[in-house]
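Students often ask why we bother predicting the structure of a whole assembly rather than each chain alone. The short answer is interfaces. A chain on its own may look different once its partners are present, and contacts between molecules only exist in the joint model. In this exercise we take three input lines together and write out one structure for the complete complex. Read the inputs first and try to guess which parts will touch.
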Amino acid sequence: MTSYVLGAAGPSVYWYLTRSTGAVSLLLLTLAIVLGVVDVERWSTPRVPRFVLDSLHRNVSLLALAFLVVHILTSVLDSFASISIADALIPFIGSYRPFWLGLGAVAFDLILAVIATSLLRARMGFSTWRTVHWLVYASWPIALVHGFGTGSDASSTWLIALSVVCIAMVAVAVLTRVLVGWPENIRVRAAALIGTGVFGLFIALWLPSGPLGSEWARRSGTPASLLPHSATAKSSGGTR
Amino acid sequence: MSGPAATSTGERSRASTQRAEPALPRLLAGIQPQGALTLDEHVAVHGPMPAAAGRGRRRDREQAATLIAEVARAGLLGHGGAAFPTATKMQAVAGARRRAIVLANGAEGEPASLKDRTLLESLPHLVLDGAILAAEAVGADEVIVCVCESAHEAHGSLSRALDERARGASGRAPALSLTTVPSHYVAGQESALVNYLSGGPAKPTFTPPMPFQQGVRRRPTLVNNVETLAHLALIARHGARWFRELGTPGQPGSALVTLSGAVAHPGVYEIEHGASLSSLIAAGGGSTARVRGALLGGYAGAWVAGELLNGVALSDEHLAPHGASLGAGVVLLLSEDACPVAETARLASWLAGQSARQCGPCVHGLDALASTLDELAAGSAGSRATQRIDRLASLVARRGACGHPDGALNPILSALHSFQAEFADHARHGLCEACARPGELPLPERPVTDARMRAAVSQR
Amino acid sequence: MSQRVRVNPIACEAHGMCAELLPERITLDEWGYPIVDETPLHGSEVAHAMRAARACPTLALLLERAGDERRR
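Now the answer. The structure tokens for the assembled complex follow.
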């Protein structure tokens, strides 16, 4: 993070909180997925029995939700871009980068559904619960793209490093889940494999020309009034 | 209490009068060597069906309660193998709030049993009477008759019988329909039948809820074996006292048994409970070879050694000391040419293959038991084989969702008990010369699949 | 009102968490499936039993009133 300037011209503390809690949420979500796969693949050791890993999976997921809630609240409180609570929950109705922000709302709604059904799983059939639970595999890539799309510091080293680590962890987790037990339920597994490949390709092609490319802020739908007009504006930190 | 066994399917019987004779034949009265009794012939033998005893009008409700009470007084037990008191079941369904449905269970997945399909083939109207009366007594508006998909004659017979009734338009309420069910062993289990008719596979489900609470289409479902319904039809006509004039106090009335194996005239016979096994064999033309042992009840039944058979009487209380019960009415005589060790091993493998494969202990336990028995037959099991079998038996008992694993233990453990000499001989010397001969137990190929089988449903 | 634990053998897929969380009542057989002691639970065991039931990935472990009829 380059030095910040207090006052109306610089990023507020809420902006930093939004970005950091967003990044942590992504990391926690990644860990939750890794632990979920560890859980379903029944990995355990005598010192780390199954119920411990299972509890860890549940608790990390709840922690991710907690960070997400803070992330949303701080983005609303941040006065720079007018984001309302509704924009955070209902996709694509906002005025600030509506599509990319909306993806965040989509991811959040999916995660809410997953966590709600998990808390209430004793009251529904197992296969209903499991079908909804698989939505988490959709929520993660959406969250990732949301992070790249809405961030103005997408090119910062730490964020890229974090993203690479998370992508690697989820890729390994998904591949493990798909390949162990192959070829049972081959249609679902093959679809997952193809989806993962397609997403990977998309990220590889989109990132350089998109968020890491020039004038992403304008192209992503930042309201004109918020765009920097000065040619000397720094490319990160001071600009929005 | 050893009255003679009576009429097999091979004999012609004169139509009896309306007066209720206590003696045999009862169910098989009027049975013809070929074809089914028409509705008129059925009425000529047994008299018309008793008046409607349905729920609704006060008089009808009283009559319904009267029929269930009569069945209770008669002490009728289920003839599907579990011998559960029929009146208790009917009471439970009648007491439910939702409109009930009746399943006449003719699935008969037991390969060594032919009584149910014989009844449906030759005496469909007797079964239909019982089903309609039961439906009226429990307040059901629908009866579904379930027949094994391989029992084509029974299906045809029932179809024609249902046509006859539709033409007759007696005005009796329950809607009658006919459906085929898969032929594998567990398909006839109560919850499996309900599962299948509710659109699922013919595999047992976890209970509770029991079918009488929540069955087909979530309605209280009365599942009765077709023979039980046939008895019910006669109790409704002739009363509990008449019913109890045959049989034993603990197991009154008559029963159908399938006599097969080393006997001159294998077939379906009607006996009174408590009849001696020797009289049944005599009625069947006598045994065709020395009998090594008899499998009683079915493939979930027990082996009784040949030397003990002379004193055996066919009722649950008389068979209990031998570790056996009448079960599904199977009496299979193993000749001395057969090897009981090989037969038991084959049976164990077959039973393991007939598992619905839904419960770990059943799948693993029965597979392990089958391999151990194969090793015992081949003489390669080692000295701890019986301990292994005992351990597997305790691991398997009561740990499945249905009674299949427990049932499978019966022939295995009773064989070890009844044929000790043969098993010891195999432990020492491996396969005997009788092992190579074709098996005497019918073990048809009956894959248990999830795919919905052809289900011909004809609405009436 | 006393309670007991029971396993639905069809839903059970031998994850084994129940045996970790309620070893007083549940042991695993050689294939990983639970052998359940279905006698009524002591008061102190109920909380552990509830946790074990919640932990089961397939919701196969049930906590129910002891004495409910269990006929097949």
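Check your guess against this: The mean pLDDT of chain C is 90.
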